[in-house]
Design brief:
Layout: H1 7-13, E1 20-21, H2 27-38, E2 49-54, H3 56-66, H4 75-78, H5 86-98, E3 101-107, E4 112-113, E5 116-117, H6 120-138, H7 149-159, E6 164-171, E7 173-174, H8 189-192
Antiparallel strand pairs: 1-7, 2-3, 3-6, 4-5
Length: about 200
């Protein structure tokens, strides 16, 4: 049975997957996912994204940090950032334990230079994430864009990343029964679009 999707099917049917079942992912499919990421639009063709693919021992080190009782960010920002609720942390850790691959996405070009702020690199990196999410879904796998600050900080710590960690993508086989309580409803076009003649 072919689980691959057409382009529009991939967009319309993609959803955030948080519950996975065991199963490996071939190296060639991981490469296809990364190639989709590098084909994203890039302002000035600067290609700011960097992808850190972790498996095995590195993934275990990452999990060890996430299993910390508080999963707190560094002390200097801990006062302004809430910890991840325990129920969410358990769900996220369970997913991370099950998936064979975790992709950490870095924006290697800092968005602030002197007094001029450019969001171009960050937007390009975000576009690469969406490309990868669609590729993951079209290949029959599942993922979720994880942007909780403690998770980003854990990835940065494990990998020694100097740039800005944008997200963490666990990549695996979707569990047969997903958690329907996650709301994927979208506002109607009439609420979000204005048409001009």
């Amino acid at each position: 049975m072919d689980h691959r999707k057409t382009f529009l099917e991939a967009i319309m049917t993609r959803r955030s997957i948080r519950d996975f079942k065991p199963g490996d992912i071939p190296a060639e499919d991981v490469e296809k996912i990364l190639r989709a990421g590098i084909m994203a639009p890039s302002p000035g063709n600067r290609q700011p994204w960097r992808f850190h693919v972790i498996r095995g021992n590195t993934k275990e080190k990452f999990l060890t940090i996430l299993k910390n009782a508080n999963v707190m960010p560094p002390a200097e920002i801990a006062k302004t950032v809430k910890t991840i609720p325990l129920s969410w942390r358990r769900l996220l850790i369970k997913g991370m334990e099950t998936v064979p691959v975790v992709i950490v996405v870095e924006n290697s070009i800092l968005t602030k230079k002197k007094e001029h702020i450019s969001v171009g690199p960050l937007l390009g990196t975000a576009a690469s994430v969406e490309n990868m999410l669609l590729a993951i879904h079209s290949l029959g796998y599942g993922s979720v864009w994880l942007g909780f600050l403690p998770i980003l900080e854990a990835a940065k710590r494990v990998l020694g990343i100097s740039g800005e960690v944008v997200c963490v993508l666990p990549v695996g086989h979707p569990a047969d029964h997903q958690n329907e309580y996650f709301n994927r409803s979208r506002k109607p076009i009439e609420e979000v679009a204005t048409f001009y003649d």
